[in-house]
Each structure stands twice: as structure tokens, then as C-alpha cells.
Amino acid sequence: MPSQFLSSEEYDERAHQLYNEGSYDEALALLREGLGLYPNAVELHVGVGYARLARDEFAWARRAFEEALVLDPEHEDGLAGLGEVLLKLGQTAAAVRSFRRILELGYSDDVELMLQVGRALFREGLMEDAKEYFEIAVQQTPENAEAIAMVGYAQHRLGDEPAAVETLRKALQFDPEHSEARIYLGNILYDQGEYEGALYQLDRTKPEDHWDELGIWRLLELKKSHLRMKDDDPSLRIWEERLTELAPSPDPLDELLSDIEQRAADREQREARSQLELFGALLSDLSEQKQAPERHRVVGRDGRQYEGSWEQIVAAMRDAGPAGGTRTVEEFMQSEARRGFSITGMLIPTRDAESFLRASADAGLLRILH
Q1: Torsion of CA 287, 293, 294, 297, to 10 degrees
Q2: Where are the domains of the chain?
Q3: C-beta atoms surrounding 183 within 10 Å
Q4: If you ran DSSP here, which 8-state letter would residue 364 be given?
Q5: pLDDT in tens, 164-194
Q6: C-alpha to C-alpha distance for 47 and 34, rounded to whole angstroms
Q7: Measured distance CA(176)–CA(197) in Å, rounded
Q8: What sign does the dihedral 111-177-162-359 (CA atoms) show?
Q9: Which top CATH class is 1-107?
Q10: Residues 257-286: pLDDT tens digits?
């Protein structure tokens, strides 16, 4: 039954509140109720579009935004919403035109709208376009830490790390409590090998500021290597508890598949050993002429090159890290495997150096040249 005495604006406001609370179904139901009374209310059509978009109903969202733009072709929120939907549908050129129309209509002074458009482009990997809208927002509000930080994120994704570091430091000058910018900066510095700077930034965050495991793993590693904290230091407990909160619950199906894969691998190893035993005599003859172990060359994420056997390369990578040689090779591989999983979601085996390096290369964490 329709709500009594609600104007179209009141329908829009109530639906907007439900949307912000994540109650998309309720927001959509209220908006459709409102449209039954006010079919030409542009804001209600736009609201339906965003509710549909939040539910990944892209075709319906597009229809709602297009209906809004038939009623008002210059509605900035309708143009922004349509652009977002078009990006999701892979129609990049049309999406960019819809966003560009917002600028042509003179809405560049709407900072929140510029950030919304920039984020949509950023999510789809269109970094140059995203950076342009973030920079427009900064031009309008030069001390807006959020807008400045977004420019820094785009610069980093475009490969301009020096500029990204400078921009993120600037954002933190305006808002020292901007935890997302501080974590991002700390991770960039860590990747650059500036471990003291990374520790400085990450150590000024709180566990609840982190929504992925990478920054926490790095902070724990740096605290232990640079501040010489022990594994059982009480001050580390809150960070370990946050890691536990962030760690996904094990999926029973994934565990079953992992067990099957391990059994298959064990069976293959047994069969391989049996085959080798059949040709043991031949292999023995060939091994009389001893050769030097095969050498390989690997390039790490920091650009450093390592050469030698698989084992020598892993040992050299460990020695070049912030903890130096204070850890065993096995401990180093386990730590890097955890870090790699938090970055890529790919499991990296640590049973031997070759498997560890090849899987790391498959995950994009390093390159094997030879």
C-alpha cells in the first residue's frame, strides 16, 4: 500500500537512506512505489538505476538511467550512472562520452561527482581517464586529501611511483588520519625497498584500518626485523588477531580439491621414481661425467637480478630482504608465499626452491629469464 502524503522528493530521500545502508531491495521497492505515483520524477528513475547497478542488474539499470535521461537529457547523476553501466557492459567509448558530457554541462565543480566518475574509471583500469577526473576534483578543492590520494593511486597504477609517493605524502599532510593513503604509501615504499619508511607509515595505522592482509604481514615482518620484536611480543597480538579476522574461512570443497591434487601429485612422484629406477643403470653411466649444476637468472619485483641454482637464488633473495639472513630459507619462502597469496590469491608451494620460484613467476611476482 503506498505511503501516505509522500512527495517524490521524500520517496527519493528515504530510498537514498536505504541505499546507503546497503538495503538495495527495500530501496528499489520504495522507488518503484514512488514511480507508481510520480512516473515522471527523474530522481526516482535515477535512484532505480543505482539500486539496479548495486545488484549487478546492468540491463535493468541501463534502462532506468535512459528513462531518466529521456525526461532530462542533462541530468548529471543520470549521465554518471549510465556511464558506470556502460563500463560494466564493456562499452567503454560510450561510457567515456557520457562522462565527458558531464564536463561539457559545467559540472566540474561537483567534487563528489568527479570522484564518483574517477572511481568508476579506476575500477575498470582506465587510469589516464580516472586521473583526469581526480585532478579536476583537486583543482576545485586543493586541500581535499581524498581527491589528492586518488590522484596518487592512479599515478602508481600508471607506473609513476615517484610522483605517487609525493602525492600521497601531500594527502597525508592535509589529513594525517587518512589511513587508506598511509597504507598505500607504506606498501609502495616496501616494494621500493625503503623498509624504514614503510615501517614508519604502516606503524601509524590501526588494525581496523586494514581490509587486506598484505599491509599487516609487512608490518609484522618489519617490526620483527627492524625493531627486533620476538614472535610472542604482546604488542603484536592485536595485529595477529586482525589477520585472523581477515583470513577467509576455509572452503570444504577447496580443501577436498587440494587433498585430491596432493594425492595425485604423490602418485605421480611415485610413478616417476619407478621409471627412474628402471633406467638406473643408464643414468649411473651418464652421471659419471659430472657437470656443473644448471644456472638460472631471475628478476625480482624490485628489479634486482639473481643468478645461480634455484636454491642459491632463493637464498640470495632472502639475504636481500629486510630480515637479511636472520631467517631460514624455508621461513623466507613461507613468508613470501603468504604475502604472494594476499596479493594475487594464488597458492605458492614452498616444498622446494624451484617450485617456489616457478609458481611465484606464474603469479607475476617475479620473472624467470633463464
Answers
A1: 170
A2: 1-107, 295-370
A3: 24
A4: T
A5: 999 999 999 999 999 999 999 999 999 999 9
A6: 11
A7: 15
A8: negative
A9: mainly alpha
A10: 666 666 766 666 666 566 655 555 455 554
